[in-house]
Amino acid sequence: MAELLETPVLQWSAQYFVTRAPRHKALPGDKMLLPPSALEGLLSASANAAAEFSKQSLPAFDPYNSSTYSAYKQAEAQYQDQKQQLPYPLTFRLVNPENGHAVYAGIREFSADDDEVVVSDFIAEILGLPQPNVDDHIPVDDATETNAPTQITVHVKQLPKGTFVKLRPLEAGYNPDDWRALLEQYLRQNYTTLTNKEILVVPGGKGIGGTNEEFRFLIDGFKPDVDGVCIVDTDLEVDIEALNEEQARETLKRIIDKSAKAPGTDAGSSKGGDLDLFRPQEGQVLPGEYVDYELASWNKALPLEIELSADDDGGDVDLLISPFSAHQRSKPTLEEHVFADLDDRPRKRIRLEPSNVELEHAEALFISVHAYAMEEGTTNGDSTSHQQAENPRRFTLQVRHPDPAAETIDSSITASDDPPDPNDTRCKNCTQWIPKSSIFLHENFCLRNNILCPHGCGQVFLKSSPAYASHWHCPHDLSFGSTPVSQTKHNTLSHLPPLHCPSCATLETFSSLSALAHHRTTTCPSKLILCQFCHLTVPQEGDPDVPNAEALLSGLTVHELADGARTTECHLCDRITRLRDMATHLKSHDFDRLERPPPLPCRNAMCGRTQDGCSKKGDTRAGSRMGQGSGNDLGLCSVCFGPLYVSLFDPEGKAMRRRIERRLLAQLSTGCGKIYCSNTFCATGRKNSGILPGGVGIKDAMPMVKPLLDGLGKGKDSALWFCVDKGSQRKRKLAEMLAAEGVYGFAWCAGAVEAENGELDGSRKWLSNWAPTKVEEARR
Q1: Dist. CA 489–CA 731, nearest whole Å
Q2: Most exposed: 221, 229, 475, 757, by fewest CB within 10 Å?
Q3: Do residue 86 and residue 196 come from a single domain?
Q4: What pLDDT score was predicted for residue 725?
Q5: Do 559 and 608 share a domain, yes or no?
Q6: What sequence ranges are listed for the domain Ubiquitin-protein ligase E3A N-terminal zinc-binding (predicted)?
Q7: How many domains does the chain have?
Q8: E-assigned strand segments in 262-416
């Protein structure tokens, strides 16, 4: 009999019209969307396959044979278990009947419209589908003869798990050390299947102007030897081989050239590192690369100036800054930065004020120096210019706190229209001060040879100079420059075709890299944050087009809002509280801490207890609430008062005074006999402390006891000296030691030691949780 645990083969197919997803909802990798009716059909096919498999795997039913009866029962149980289950992962084979092209794919969701399948760009390219407008979604009902959608056939196909794949780069220069980790991550996140002999495109970094860097590979064979494999939940070994020997030699040559320009070499960019406030940092950067620095600490109460000076009038070297904090984790780039100076000047300067909200909670500053890479054609075919474009740019980076005295002097110097000399007058063309005696000759010469920029920038040029010929003003903003490279750089960075964020699905478009950088450092759902609840670096999530009102009001990101909904116990009161409400909940404890009544220490100078008892949860009247208070008016705790208690009516307290007197006289004359006693009003304690003679006679003891008895009628400020147990005596000394530190009063220290049963670390923690400091008590 066949094994009942084998999986039945699922068979299902259907035809759908192909629809391309809009740009902002593009599907990754080999993913597609099917309609909900496809899921119903798959479940029905799964149930039929399970039933057919159960019938074929059993012998003929014999009602008089108990073994066949139990086998049928087992098959029925397996059928009930499998009829509503689908294999994981679901994989499909898509075929375009018009050209015969086929590809394997995985499913993203069952959310497409009826009779439609939404496919990714990867699938559409392999199937040879036409390229529609990138932002158009053409429904089937509106299709015309010219834009009629293609109908394809979708088959469910259970693929074997792949164990090996061979990839061949289509271009020379790919370095496996650079993109192997990128390849593994990209396949894991975007692909369910791989199809043999197809082109795999792996996006890399993003270049100037929003152009993607891509790695293209030919998929050239699997193990097992099939047309397609599943790469989910399997250890896939990847082997990268050059397409031919010529490509292998070219790749090796490019790797050697790249290693010659590695960071830290003479021909490469500097390595970056830590910055010093008191020393300028010199370095160099290759065009198109970044040199990253970090400023770990500075005086956050003072302004901070970051100045970048480039050699050889290098206006193509840019300064980028991003603070490093819980809500800003990425290093600055052209597409993702908080502060930047991209102007066409050899000297860049950014001033950060202490009140800048972007610096709030900043742990460090990431500072990057970037060199603009000129596009092809900007060197006009000059080999010397091309060589200069490939050379590293030298720069000096200086971070400092500006001198307030120097700023005061600079601010006092204002521009004046008064001539430096009373006999001077200003030229109307070049605006220079000229002696009145020669102004006529100067203006004649100046008007023939010089020209003032008519666009209002105030620059004066020789009419025949190359600088005037290449001088430009941007028609869209107030930017200007005097070189073709500066104009190209400005247009490339500030006036681009509509850009989409490469990390999220927002509908918003951006016309400049600065606008895109602002989006990626503020509302982009893919911006990385350090979650204050799960303590992981995760995307902040959310919808940038429809902000979450609760997240805006709470100051949390959407991820933190969801993650903070988890509950935990308050470590102070054991109350179940949401994580995002814990800060407010702890503030309520802080208010209670300031209003809580202080403990009342026992009047006995040797005792470390309080009159009403303190609990671990900060209650300074815990014993009295439970009926375990002192129960006396002497200010003694219940333990110290116990030996003095008798059931005698004594409204004037005369009998109580006699009992106290007898006990003190007995201590001074005979002692308590305890080897640990340090009570100076006890013969044993005096002997242990080295006070001679240890015992005191009644005649000498009376003058010592009388002041204590006189203090009974003067409130509870005067102390009594009764011998106590070793633990209480130790707690008293520990409380006095904590009080001597000067942070908390003695009463609170005594309550803390009593609540924590004499543990020093626990007592300090109790004080920080429940006790106000002396300064806070003085303010009340």
Answers
A1: 75
A2: 475
A3: no
A4: 93
A5: no
A6: 662-688
A7: 7
A8: 273-274, 281-285, 290-295, 304-310, 317-324, 339-341, 347-352, 364-371, 393-400
* Owner of token pair 């100067």: 442
Cα distance between residue 15 and residue 98, in whole Å: 13
> Tell me, what's the pLDDT at 60?
56
For residue 383, what pLDDT is reported? 43
Q: Domain range spanning residue 239?
A: 164-260
User: Are residues 401 and 301 in contact, defined by beta-carbon separation less than 8 angstroms?
Assistant: no
Rg (CA), the chain: 42
pLDDT of 561 reads: 93
Q: Output the CA–CA distances (angstroms, integers) from residue 157 to 42, 129, 165, 197, 227, in the order listed.
A: 12, 22, 20, 18, 12
Domain CATH for 174: 3.10.330.10
Alpha carbons 458 and 461: distance in angstroms, whole number: 10
pLDDT recorded at residue 259: 61
Residues of the chain with pLDDT under 70: 1-8, 22-25, 49-84, 131-148, 172-180, 204-213, 243-245, 247-264, 312-314, 374-390, 405-418, 627, 713-716
Quick one: 54 and 196 in the same domain?
Answer: no
What DSSP designation does 267 have? T
List the one residue out of 506, 547, 542 whose CA is nearest residue 525.
542
List Cβ neighbours of 22 (8 Å cut-off, separation of 6 or more): 134, 135, 136, 137
Q: In this predicted structure, what is the pLDDT of residue 87?
A: 83
**Is 714 inside any structural domain?**
yes
The overall longest dimension of the chain from CA atoms, in Å, is 135
**Which pair of structure tokens corresponds to residue 562?**
């969801």
- Residue indicated by tokens 């023939």: 448
237 in a structural domain: yes
pLDDT at 140: 42
CATH assignment at residue 328: 2.60.120.380
Residues 223 and 243 in one domain: yes
Strands (E), 174-278: 193-195, 199-206, 212-223, 228-230, 237-240, 273-274
Same domain, 149 and 169: no
Please report the pLDDT score of residue 69 as a whole number: 59
Choose the final residue of a domain: 707, 723, 739: 723
Inside any domain, residue 487: no
Is residue 208 assigned to a domain?
yes
Domain shared by 291 and 429, yes or no:
no
**DSSP secondary structure letters along 452-465:** E-TTSS--EEETT-
For 280-308, how does the pLDDT look when each residue is reduced to its tens digit (9 = 90+)?
999 999 888 899 999 999 999 999 999 99
Residues facing residue 365 across a β-bridge: 295, 323
Name which of 388, 338, 335, 393 is nearest 369 in CA terms: 393
**Helix, strand, or coil (residue 767):** helix
Instruction: Write down the pLDDT at residue 215.
Output: 79
Name the pairing type of β-strands 13-20 and 31-33. unpaired
Q: Examine the domain organization and report whether 459 and 553 are in the same domain.
A: no
Task: Please indicate, yes or no, whether residues 719 and 730 belong to a single structural domain of this protein.
Answer: no
Tokens of 137: 């979604």
